[in-house]
Design goal:
Layout lengths: L1 H28 L51 H4 L4 H6 L5 H9 L3 H6 L3 E6 L1 H5 L3 H9 L1 H9 L2 E3 L4 H4 L1 E4 L5 E7 L2 E4 L8 E9 L3 E6 L9
Parallel strand pairs: 1-7
Antiparallel strand pairs: 1-2, 3-4, 4-5, 5-6, 6-7
């Protein structure tokens, strides 16, 4: 009986010692443990933080205006990107110095109310240098002919708000003809223009209350009927 009790006590002591040594070893080695951390214990494993919520994602580029000429837009005030979002498109353009000649043409064609009250449109908006590229006598002839001016301006308007990833393609315009836009990402061109030089989008994805605007460096030419 004594021998049996002694062996039992020795086995119990050995087990206790083994558990103690194992615990100490795990504290000393830390990250050197042979067992890799489980996915649930690593926030980076699934892109979540310690609270279980997803880590913030960067805003997609398509959500912001893009293009070299965007730097010419005022940083604040009614003519800024933020200021334009609250106004319908013709009003928003009138507050933007980059589009002053376009606003003059729209006013002369009596299209201000039409543009301001039409929901969800895309406007291809020639910047002031686009009009300056047209010979003066040719530009004055178009401005003096209201029917022609209306045809040219409505050729720049597409029903529906097109995001940058929807912009490329052939679209029916408010004028009833078609415009073909090529490109992707932040680079888009339109081949048919008044001067014959392809137009480039120089400041795109500008939001107003009722329109998405793409500013271009040439005036587009309607298809000849």
């Amino acid at each position: 009986m004594k021998s049996t009790l002694t062996r039992g006590l020795l086995l119990a002591s050995a087990s206790t010692l083994a558990v103690t040594l194992s615990a100490c070893g795990s504290e000393d080695t830390g990250a050197a443990s042979d067992s890799p951390p489980s996915a649930s214990s690593s926030p980076a494993a699934d892109g979540a933080d310690s609270t279980g919520s997803s880590s913030p994602m960067a805003e997609p580029a398509s959500d912001e205006p893009f293009g070299a000429a965007c730097s010419s837009v005022p940083a604040d005030g009614e003519g800024s990107f933020a200021g334009m979002t609250d106004d319908p498109v013709a009003t928003a353009a009138s507050n933007n110095p980059v589009l002053s000649t376009l606003v003059q043409a729209v006013t002369q064609a009596n299209l201000v109310d039409t543009l301001n009250t039409t929901d969800d449109i895309t406007v291809i908006a020639p910047a002031d240098p686009a009009f300056e590229a047209i010979p003066a006598d040719q530009l004055q002839a178009v401005l003096a002919d209201q029917a022609m001016l209306t045809q040219v301006l409505t050729h720049h308007v597409i029903p529906g708000r097109l995001s940058p990833d929807q912009l490329a393609g052939t679209h029916t315009t408010v004028a009833g003809d078609e415009v073909t836009i090529e490109g992707s990402g932040e680079s888009f061109t339109v081949a048919r223009t008044v001067t014959g030089t392809p137009a480039s989008v120089i400041c795109g994805n500008v939001q107003t209350a009722n329109a998405t605007v793409y500013v271009v460096d040439q005036v587009l030419a309607p298809a000849q009927g």
